[in-house]
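User: Show me an example of a complex going from sequences to structure tokens.

Assistant: Sure. Here are the input components:
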Amino acid sequence: MSGAAAARGLQALRATSISLAAIALALAASAVLILLAGADPVAAYWALLQGAVGDGFALGNTLARTTPLIFTGLAVAFAFRCNLLNIGAEGQLYAGALASVVIGIYLTGLPSVLHIALSIAGGFLAGAAWGGLAGYLRAARGINEIISTIMLNFVAIFFVSYLVHGPLAEPPGFFHQTAMVAETARLPVIYPKSDLSVAIFLAVAVALLTAYVLWRTPFGLKLRAVGESTGTARFSGVPVNRYVFGAMSVSGGLAGLAGTTEMIGGQYRLLDFFSPGYGFDGIAVAFLGRSDPIGVVFAAFLFAALRVGANHMQRTTGLPTSLILVIQGMVILFILGVAVLEWYRRRQRG
Amino acid sequence: MDVLLSVLDPDYFAATIRLATPLLFATLGGILNERAGIINIGLEGTMLMAALTGVFGAWFIGSPWLGFACGVLAGALVAWIHGFVSISLGANQIVSGTAINLLGLGLSSFLIRIVFGLKEQQRVVPHFDPVSLPLLADLPLLGPVLFHQHALVYVAFLLVPVLWVILYRTRWGLMITAVGEHPRAASSVGIDPLRVRYACTVLSGALAGAGGAFLSLGQLHFFQDEMVAGRGFIALAALIFGRWNPIGGMIACLIFGAADALQFRGQAVGLGVPHQFMLMFPYVLTLAILVVVGGKSQGPAAIGIPFRKS
Amino acid sequence: MPLLRMERITKTFPGVVANDRIDLAVDRGEIHALLGENGSGKTTLMNALYGLHRPDSGRILLDGAEVRFSSPMDAIAAGIGMVHQHFMLVPPLTVVENIVLGLKTANAPRSPLLDLRTAAARVRELAATYGLDIDTGAQIWQLPVGAQQRVEILKALYRDADLLILDEPTAVLAPSEVRHLIGVLRGLAASGKAVIFISHKLNEVMEVADRISVLRGGRLAGTVAAAETDPAELARLMVGRDIVPPRRREGRAGDPVLRIEALRVRDDRGLRAVDVVGFSLSSGEILGIAGVDGNGQKELTEAIAGVRAIESGALDLTGLAPSRGERFRNIGHVTEDRHHTGLLMSFPLWENLALKSSDRPPFGSPLWLRVDAMRRATARAIETFSIRAQGPDSPVSALSGGNQQKLVLARELGLRPRLLLAAQPTRGLDVGATEYIHQRLLAARDEGMAILLVSTELDEVLALSDRVLVMYEGRAMGLVDAGEATRETVGMMMAGMERHEAAVQGGT
């Protein structure tokens, strides 16, 4: 046991240090941009930090923002362990949000625990169905999941847009949004001034569960086996197509939970284009977290902190919040670069 | 009946061609890139950067043509980053493309605010106006549809046969196909797969850049956050729809352009179909075609796989 | 003066001396065989000649002048052509497109436009000269392997090669195609070209070559004229001692474990690959399947293993496959390609060992894995099978080929299956590992396991099997008892003769 854990621990340590180095490099490179914009990088980053974790309110907002990113990051990471690239977390998130909101609004008169549980289950299943569709197309028709999930994103987003403009619009229909979900479907709020609800605990618990499934269950072993080599998996009796479908379904379900917790954890109603790209950020989060569920939690926190801190930075220094996207993009590019340096070193050692 | 008439209106066809143009630039670029074995989901970010650079170039130099050239160069440069990461470093092309998208989205939005200032972000810059081809533009029906367009529209559609000839009738095309299908075989006869991939990636970025700059200089006349609005992804759909063939890609772009134009039209004439469904239509159509064609159309065999000399 | 002279070529890789002061001379008009086991340094030597890497020391002379190649382009320009073991052809391109790939257009070197018509005419001319029948307009993926090989040879000739290197060219060919290839090579030699023929098969080399250079452990063991040597001497040079066939006791066959009747199976392209009338396999018996690669052996094993659908016929596994999961545990399978169908290369040893039985004791249950038990079992397997590895946690990719194969064997035998499918179990392994695997297989048979051994190495099949089934174009050409099976009869059956014909011609 200790041997396996130690080996894995060492790997995690190396991955973490690479990620940290990449973050430092990205911050340094962005400092140049800040200077070009005529601002002081130290002041800007200090404002960023203050805005992200400076007080309880800031931290609450950051954690609230971490929640959906954990789910979408887990979704991408889970699929990637099966060598599937789920670019469709965004669409699956909309599917999950839709199901949860419908359950939250129209299924009234239930005890709160049951209502919440149903709403969560509905969100997971709807996301799973949307992700599973891409999995089915891949398994049964050989259609690349990257392509199909890109398409399915647009379909889900426009479909939700249609619904909030028409059938599901809150009467009398002036605003393009649904009604609020019932009180009984709302997750308990932890920190009233921010949007922080117990959803963050749910997210961390799901991350731990995902790690357990991947590393400590036969299902996880076989799923990773399919990801490593479909040939070996097939010749070992693993029904590859069923696992591809299963992995995409679970992945979609995880992304769906991001939509669910947004709906019943703080926003309470569904709007047009409500997600600021959580699904796409999930790709970056999963990558930064090295497709490891625990790593995903930390990466999600970092991305959330940057996004939340950016508002404060904009207010105090006038720097546009979009600087954060630049930092995030550069973090990924630098990790790609560092990972390759590592590869060269390994190769030279033989 | 009104609806039918309005759809058969020459203006509608003209709009279709105009809306298909930026998509066509990006799609041709994507075809070139993917046939050499590099998938670039960063087209969206590339187009955004080019749209922005085009606006800057047009404003500071004062000429839409030079602005357009700046946009093309910017596209090539952004694609070069994707090339460096995914070709030289052999990293995951999807992740690299994602990073490019984040960078493009962030950097374009950051720079427009810094350079033009918060108040004047949407400054209108020197831009392109439609050009009537002498004589041809006077043809009944066809004239206004085909021959009263922006100059760049003609360029985009001329590039279709040009790329077709390059891919299918020249030794360059043979090299590109070989590198996309079996880079080791190409390498064994002295072709450097990395160089071919670089060339295709950078050219592809230039083409995507042309699409982005056309959007800002030909259609909007200013820069707006997220103005590419998913066209980089639609281009990926279009090239699959067109089976990695420039002519097929052009047909796909025209269909997508028609759906796009129909959306405006539909809203204007009250077509009765929610406009979201029209927006959805191209994606559903692409999916449907993929389902019918199935995995048989998987594209180049070595796509997405880094090549390493051994 | 010889066309090619390689002098004291030395090349080291980290930890290995792949070539150690090797001398080689090849004349015009000569077919020169390069013989050696896998890992003896043949490929390294030829890669140095073809410019794929530079030797650490030594000289290469062409027509007496020293040359230095920094890439295959230099070698090609100097008149060297290589037919790789894995063909370097682009499947969706046509024959002529593949041949002109990377070249300038003959009549207009500055124009990027192709002139395929002129090129095709020249290819047809070359093809007629050397008897290389080919359809220049066909796409590569439509062609059988023999034809693809002809395209590779034409590709080299089109580039004016004077020296042609063929890397294990017969591995993929049927005996009749081999004969045709030898004819073509003789014609090339007769026209003044030099041919280097890489192989590890003694008889073939005796048949085709004028002279034979034997490599062993990275050194030149000797160069002999084919007319003045015999397979026994070559074998001695190749392995450094006389080959002693593994001492084997007669097996005692028990109850049938596998019965096959009128079985038909299709390959990946949908063509019928197996059409076998019938045979059975009993416990305590090794049934060897002999045949040239690609004659349906792969599809037959895959059908029995349950990873390929059968088209028609009966496959009776006598209760070994009550369910899908049971089938994979009751039938051990040492697959042909351990990298792609046997192992998870970046995963630790213990996950590989437990892969097939991770959801049941002792390795786990449907809901959790017992990692401790898996690692302990792996540590035991490392010891029992003398696998050279750092421990259960090291990744499989860190192991040598022989040790990887031992791990596969440890997993498959560890399941105590009643039937073991062993497909090319020693391909690519050194002598030591090969002997070890052979002993393990014989021991498993003696314990009562039924073993289906598929091998393209005739000697291996003859040495281990109690009965031999020969496959040719998907059909069983006949079943021979170990005592009656000789190289000659089985060889002729591999070439497509029915058993009785082979017996008559082979004189047994």
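The lines above are the inputs; the final block is the predicted structure for all three components together. Chain C has two domains: 4-239, 256-346+395-506.
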